[in-house]
Design a protein that fits this description.
- The chain is α+β, with helices and mostly antiparallel strands.
- The chain has a single domain, classed as Ribosomal protein L22/L17 (Ribosomal Protein L22, Chain A, Alpha-Beta Complex), CATH 3.90.470.10.
- Helices cover about 40% and strands about 30% of the residues.
- The strands form two sheets. Strands 1-5-2 form a three-stranded antiparallel β-sheet. A two-stranded antiparallel sheet has the order 3-4.
- Strand 3 and strand 4 form a beta hairpin.
- Helix 3 runs antiparallel to helix 4.
- The N and C termini lie far apart (about 45 Å).
- About 20% of the residues are buried.
Length: about 140
Amino acid sequence: MKQFGNNIEIITLILRKTKITKKFMSNVQSVKAVAKYIRMSPHKVRRVLDQIRGRSYREALMILEFLPYDAGGPVWQIVHSVAANAKNNYDLDKKKLIIDEVYANEGPKLKRIRPRAQGRAYKILKPTCHITIVVKESS
């Protein structure tokens, strides 16, 4: 057994182990779909994701269809895809699906330059994002 320098390390190890066991003890099936390198700012996508977090699958599709934001299109596709994954891979009912987690992480930025006067150049950063949606079946 390893010797620990102080009690704080032991406590953090115990806390980490309890968090891990809590995740594995849940027996609700969750399904995930990820869209990578979407050419949109994650800040703008999060505005749309906040609207559908915690909603049912059908309700989320209706909301996304009529949102005035451009980010609604890719998010609609991912929600549709995660429901298809749940149906085909795990034989879950689409009507009972609830959106459990949604988040948009930053992807790599496309770097471009804008020529300016006297040989200078301004940097243009075109952001991308990775959108992840996790659904689970309601009881």
